[in-house]
Amino acid sequence: MARESTLRFGAQTDEVTSLLRIVNLVRTGEATTRPEIGRVTGLGRGVVTQRVDQAIEMGFLADGEYGPSSGGRAPRTLRFRSEQGRIVVCALGALHIRVGIASLDGDIIDHSHQEWDIARGPAETIEKALEMLDEIVERHPDVPVWGVAVGVPGPVDFESGRPVAPPIMPGWNGFDVRRRFEQRFDAPTWVDNDVNLLVFSERARRQEDSLDLIFCKVGSGIGAGLLSRGRIHRGANGAAGDIGHVRVRDSDAQCRCGKVGCLEAEAGGWALIRDAERAVDEGAGGALARHVDGGSEVTPEAIAVAAMDGDALAISLIQRSARLVGESIAALVNMFNPAVIVVGGAVSSAGEVFLAEIRQRVYELSLPLATRDLSIVRSLGDEKEPLRGGAEMVREQLFDATFPRWFADGRPTLSEVMAAS
Sorted alphabetically, which keywords does the UniProt record give (predicted)? Predict the structure, then answer.
């Protein structure tokens, strides 16, 4: 009990500090043998052995395989026990739900996807997401949930986990998204904008600690996530990167947010559908027009595919969207000076037809110094990206932000972790 009281609530004794550091060194792969830990930390051999034994006893570390020998006896490697807990991820989009579970090292173990309209409201949507998650969790029993990530397609107050006036989410404003997931899984839950989850995924894939990056998602709506020196920039109230509702010059298009002239109302996927149907009504021809006349559903993906196949109407819609998006991104480039811009979302699946126009506008309108080393690329487009990003967000919160508070318990507790948030 005395040891527990010294470890609890982040008491920064030398023992606690070194123990925490050793677990994180092994977890991140920076040091995976006892001799390596000694060299990195400067701790003596006896102290390292004692701390490692403590970490093994607490359930954080385990002995692994033998490492390469440097002349003497081969050292035994250590591994972080990523299998001891699970991370639950729910990524809500405008027209779909993606859910999954991950190990504590961020690997997606199982996942599921279903088409769904977010406008059906929070109660029905969250109930469906929980049903999907229950099915997955039941396939992997007897492993506790350590944390939950929820992504939503709108601005979020990260501290409270509540959406704030989300334009395409009627009924969600101020809704306590976090509560239902905490009740179901008895685990700390974090809610963030869906594009931020994609930023977390990119950061993990690139493994660059101080990366400056913009992820611009052009799907049904438009949004951006900002990574500054390796850290997510959410802004004072969670609205950073909401470029879908910046004003487009000379536009009088009505936006779903209730305002007029928003970028999303001119260049978002739903706007492209509107303009495609209008053009067909006015007599436009081609493959996309036949698609519309045939009664098939028009989607941003269908327009992107038609553009890649050379349809003139689809190309004109995609290129105009890209030019307008590129102008907004150029303003961000001048202010933010990123090293990388990643473009994703359904509309961007048109590939170079879309990306070339964005590049042209960004390089035309941005300062030469801001674009000197700038890379503009498409995202991988993997449907598991938001799930990986959600797992990374939880890992950051558990092991970077709150680890000292729950370390002595051997696993995170809802009361301690959320009290630290």
Answer: Kinase, Transferase
